[in-house]
Request: fold
Amino acid sequence: VYPDDRVTAFVNEHFIPLRIHIKENPQGFERFGVQWTPTVIIADSSGTERYRFEGYLPVEEFLPQLEFGLGKVAFARSAWKEAEERFRHVAETYPKSDVASEALYWAGVSKYKQTLDPSALAETATALRSRYPDSVWTKKASVWEVPAPS
Amino acid sequence: MMPIAWKKDIDTAIEEAKLKRKALLLDFTAAPS
Reply:
């Protein structure tokens, strides 16, 4: 996927890229507990892992995974607004990607973290049920739903 | 389009990431180079 111009541009803009080859640097595999290739890890600037995915992905899935990872990096440093923007951009730009429902979930969490307003979670649960009824993230968000008045 | 300038040394890449305040993308591969 890396020869794709969209991937190249995104990586060059947002990351310090590091390639670790099994034959050249098996210690690198051990250091990060990697047991299969390809594995992609997104880490913060101190090298702490924040997200990983394993196995080949086509560009249309790879790009949202990269941006989702940036959301996780922002979330881990409590940059709630940036995290929400990243996650929401993934969900809105790549709504059919496998990571979209998870991104929507974490966008809601990030908004709640900014505002401490529980309606952010309830709205997220409703949006997930509407857009991704079969997603595990919809199940996870179901506890946030406000019961309909009887 | 500038090709991706892959680093190979983990600790050097971390130092650069700290300086530039960027995230790290670690690509673990077994593909022939």
Observations:
- The CA atoms of residues 14 and 20 of chain B lie 10 Å apart.
- Chain B has a mean pLDDT of 93.
- Chain B touches chain A at residues 1-8, 10, 13-14, 16-18, 20-31, 33 (CB under 8 Å).
- The first strand of chain B starts at residue 23 and ends at 29.
